[in-house]
Amino acid sequence: MEDEIGIDVKYQSLNDPYTFRKPKLKYRIKRSSKKCIWIMFILIIICLLFSFLIPKEIKEDIVNDINDGKNEYVMTKGKPRFDKYGVDLNANILDGMYNIGFDDDPNKKLEDWSLYTPPCPYLSPVNHPEYVINPQCEVSSIQIVNYNNDNGKGLPYSLHLDSITNQMKKWEEWVMKDGINPNYRNRSVEELLDNNQYHPFDYGYNSSQEDNTNNDNYYEYVINSRMDETPDPRKRRLFSFIMFNTEFDLLDLYFTEFYDVIDYFVIYESNSTFSGNPKPLYFTRALLETDRYDKFKDKIIPLPCETIVDEDNGRGKAFPKEHLARRLVIEKGLRSVHARHGDIFIHGDLDEMPKVHVLSRLKKCGGWEHLQAGIGGGPKSFIHENTNSYFLKNKDMNVTVNSYGEYMIDYEKEKSLGFLIWFYEYSFNIIENKNIGTVAHPNLAIFDARRSLGQFIENGGNGISKRSYHDPLSDPDFDIYQGYTYTDNTNDRRTGKGFLGESIRFDTSKIGDLKTNNKTVLWNAGWHLSSFLPTTKQFYNKISSYSHHDSYGEKSKNQIIKDIKSRIKKKVYIFGREKKYFDNKPSYPDSITEGYRYNFNATYWDEMISLNGSDTNFKKYKNMLDHEIPYQVWLNPICYSFMIDRRFGLKKKLWWQVIPKKNWKTIRFEDLNQSIIKKIFPKNFPKKLKSQLFRKTNNKNKKKKVTIH
Fold first, then answer.
1. 473-476 contacts at long range (C-beta below 8 A, 24 or more positions apart)
2. Phi, psi at residue 359, to the nearest 5°?
3. Dihedral Cα 655, 658, 659, 664, nearest 10 deg
4. Residues 584, 629: contact at Cβ < 8 Å?
5. How far is CA 342 from CA 355, 513, 704, in A?
6. pLDDT of amino acid 317
7. Are 484 and 452 spatial neighbours (Cβ–Cβ below 8 Å)?
8. Is 601 exposed, middle or buried (0-12, 13-18, 19+ CB in 10 A)?
9. C-beta of residue 227 within 8 angstroms of C-beta of residue 480
10. How far apart are CA 304 and CA 187, in angstroms?
11. Contact in structure between 99 and 271 (CB atoms under 8 Å)
12. Closest among 576, 530, 270 to 423, alpha carbons compared
């Protein structure tokens, strides 16, 4: 840290970690006294000593002021790290950020942190079946919640999908017919999903022929392309923008489960909690200082941000901080990945996990985009004489804004599409509602370069006059992501102008209003892993850090931990009133090698829905979809025992509480004796699957002839 500090450097205040100030007055007086004593000597040899003695004293003063006996701050800073396409994955950490050390100790390593949990020894990306990652779009479908069928508890709608190539050809044919633009905003969900008609959507791409450029060269070109160019939608990318606190076990699961389908993970964290307490940059330091995520590093972009908001919105000071964090992770996330027109991004909390087979169909297939983006369209080239941007304050381009400062231009039908997911509490054994998902997050949206550049939508009748200025994209000061920014992020009162990223999430936050507001929500689309934490220490840390922390009042740590154990035993929600949840029995695949067997064939789903799900085999299939769990969990039941059997981490020891720390990285579970296996393996895991699992792991290790790390 000393090497980074010079004479005029301002530094972080401990009382307000987001205010930077100069050294305290008493230290400046102390420094001046030393200068007076040596004044004659300094005048004689000033050229020799000035650059050596003075900076050293000032450095000591600054360090003394930062280390006030309570916390000792450390500087976390990264070096440029470019991926094969030219994206600097460390762009957000080049300037560095001060944060407290682990357990308030600046010299402590992550592995020695009191709440540290080791990664699974088998931590690596899940190899999902090829037909899942690359679905046959021409015969596939996507399921949408049917709130007219038993308030969403019944069978869903099923929308036919198609290849993006075919969808572009259909658009070209529709344009030739000179049809009337559909008003998607005023159509019911049922009308939007009518499989007997084409739902016009313009990808904004000028050719139905696929770009056959080598992928490495193609994406290298894309990230450096002009924002007013539309990349090939068949090669669109999928990004995940999530927020992280300390839940390493969930983050491990997230990376492994989605590595195959997501192109970049942007991970937001702050050097203070939403409840206002300073905290280490756990994830950023794990990425820089350990090998925990080396197998995923080529897709990971850390985004540490300071929380500068300090206000009460009526629900406490935590929620304003959370709202601004969501706004920032979307805006800065889009910048970090060099988003271009047609790319897809999802935003949610770390414990809100969509199903991979849903994500892959949305990424690779066409025919659903109108549900979120309306009729679509692409950006106009600024080289064209009639293209303009309302960000350039052209007098002929007055754009109205609403009371929140959002531009009143309909770029989309919906802000986002929500994933209706099952709400599990503590483990997959406890569920809020056995009949329907009760959370409509995370949220998915398509990046629109027209919004980003401040362009009107085509056929908008805005009467733009001939442009009389230079190409704005040739101006280095023109922000190509301005349309996804907000001008005032110092408060949660929405006093600025622009794009409110948090509204993408809020669009589906009120689960009871989804039917009334005619929202399109993806059916049976994921899991909410609420409070899936290994030990009571992690539970306490969560409660003291999150936006809901006030619900436990002024209770002592011991009393809070006692309350947590009581809530888990009674199967009630961790926050607020003691809402009773239900028992749940997860479903497991029959085969370790094949995994779950999916069938999203459009014709099959049409037939099953017409029969109201009465087919015996379909009932079994739907039961599997309702109760399936992430691949990584059932592939590694010892590592994630507390997610399968909640007694682990409470009454029963976790694997890393049994295995000595020195063996955590090299342990092979199949080599352990049966007495140890019995202690750390969930009893409710299928015996048939257990034997397959050990046999597969043992064969894999023999073939490689190495210990798994």
1. 473/226, 473/227, 473/228, 473/382
2. -60, -45
3. 40
4. no
5. 21, 29, 41
6. 80
7. yes
8. middle
9. yes
10. 41
11. yes
12. 530
Please give the C-alpha separations between residue 431 and each of 252, 350, 426, 438, 538, in angstroms, as whole numbers. Answer: 22, 18, 9, 10, 21
For 253, the enclosing helix (H) or strand (E) is helix 248-258
Closest of 126, 359, 351 to residue 250, by C-alpha: 351
What is the pLDDT, as a whole number, of residue 392? 84
- What parts of the chain have a pLDDT lower than 70? 1-71, 385, 393-396, 459-470, 545-553, 696-709
φ and ψ of 90, to 5 deg: -105, 15
| Of residues 47, 73, 155, the one with CA closest to residue 626 | 155
Token reading at 391: 């960000």
Q: pTM value? A: 0.87
Non-local (6+) Cβ contacts of 4 within 8 A are: 75, 77, 96
Q: Each residue of 268-292: pLDDT tens digit? A: 999 998 878 899 999 999 999 999 9
pLDDT at 461: 35
SS3 content of the chain, % helix, strand, coil (to 5): 35, 15, 50
CA distance 391 to 410: 16
Torsion sign, CA atoms 207, 208, 213, 215: positive
Measured CA to CA, the distance from residue 660 to residue 342 in angstroms comes to: 49
Residue-wise pLDDT for 343-366, tens only, equals 999 999 999 999 999 999 999 999
- d(CA 682, CA 680) in angstroms, rounded, equals 7
